[in-house]
Amino acid sequence: MGDLIDASRLMGIEKIRLRAEDIGIYVWLKMGFLPTSEAWREMRREAFDFILLHRPLLEKERDVTALLTQVMAGGPRMARVLSLIDTEVPSRKIPSRFTRKMMPFGKVFFLEAASPGNGVLDLRDAETVKAVESYRARE
Question: What is the residue extent of each domain of the chain?
């Protein structure tokens, strides 16, 4: 990933576009990519349903009505907010011995509920560059 960013900057590329599927949705989001407006429209509906599904667990730590309002009113940057929600919810795909494995909401949503979609990494956007640098520091 670091080489891609460095090469893009050297060539004067300002935006990198991709198609994210399966685990890629969560990983690319953590790297700084955001869904396109079109992809976000689909993701927003899925997020709304996923929040309602896990409302009892989420309500212990946050105002779910406010979160639902943010999701419906927010744009693609809201995907970053969702990815950071760490309230544990049961995974449908990661097995545990006798029960469903509990994992952070953001991770479960993007790995199991969000539809594949197109994304963009805007190297001119300060928030995106900060996300990229933060991810690169972990590599």
Answer: 2-138
CA angle 34/121/81 to nearest 5° reads 30
The pLDDT tens digits for 42-78 are 999 999 999 999 999 999 999 999 999 999 999 999 9
Give CA torsion, residues 70, 71, 74, 78, to 10 deg.
110
Instruction: Please list, residue by residue across 49-80, b when 16 or more beta carbons sit within 10 angstroms of its beta carbon and e when fewer do.
Output: ebbeebeeebeeeeebeebbeebeebebebbb
What sign does the dihedral 70-79-86-131 (CA atoms) show?
A: negative
Question: Side-chain half-sphere of 137: how many Cα atoms within 13 Å?
Answer: 7
- C-alpha gyration radius of the chain: 16
Provide the whole-model pTM.
0.86
Q: Distance between CA atoms of 84 and 89, rounded to whole angstroms?
A: 13
Maximum C-alpha span of the chain: 52
- The letter for the amino acid at 91 is S
